[in-house]
């Protein structure tokens, strides 16, 4: 993994700040009710554009926000996710989230994005904790989070979501990539 300015390069993905011009490609899945059945689906491209704009404003303020995930082999936008303080449901601290096109599911892209985001949280931001939410029926997402070291804190009934948490990994992390 390489951190290139505000971009991160993983073996198969380029994670870069979102652009408003990404809206049509991102809306293909952020507006897909089936792909987003366990979370919020944008109703219109304008709503998706607003989500992107608000998160990018937060990137300038907080130093992090979800990235657009571009598959390196074909330069196709396949996902959106990373670290963020949710501007639409504030108060939970730094969270991690990830959303992918349905045709990109099952290839390990979410795990790759989560690993890169947590490395960034631990090494660059030095965050003490990262949280995540998962719908109880979204076993695939829960598995990704649990494999990344997240543990269930509690069920949040008003959200119908599990709250998960992961403490920062220590300074003695061995970085095999240098």
TrEMBL record:
Domain of life: Bacteria
Claim: Oxidoreductase is one of the keywords in the record: no
Sorted UniProt keywords: Transferase
Entries under Gene3D superfamilies matching the protein: 3.40.630.30
Protein name: GNAT family N-acetyltransferase
Entry GO MF terms: acyltransferase activity, transferring groups other than amino-acyl groups
Coiled-coil features, chain-numbered ranges: none
Keyword Transferase among UniProt keywords: yes
Residue span(s) of domain N-acetyltransferase: 13-169
Organism whose genome encodes this protein: Rhizobium tropici
PANTHER family assigned: GNAT FAMILY, PUTATIVE (AFU_ORTHOLOGUE AFUA_3G00765)-RELATED-RELATED (PTHR43792), N-ACETYLTRANSFERASE DOMAIN-CONTAINING PROTEIN (PTHR43792:SF16)
Alphabetical list of Pfam families matching this protein: Acetyltransf_3
Lineage summary: Bacteria, Pseudomonadati, Pseudomonadota, Alphaproteobacteria, Hyphomicrobiales
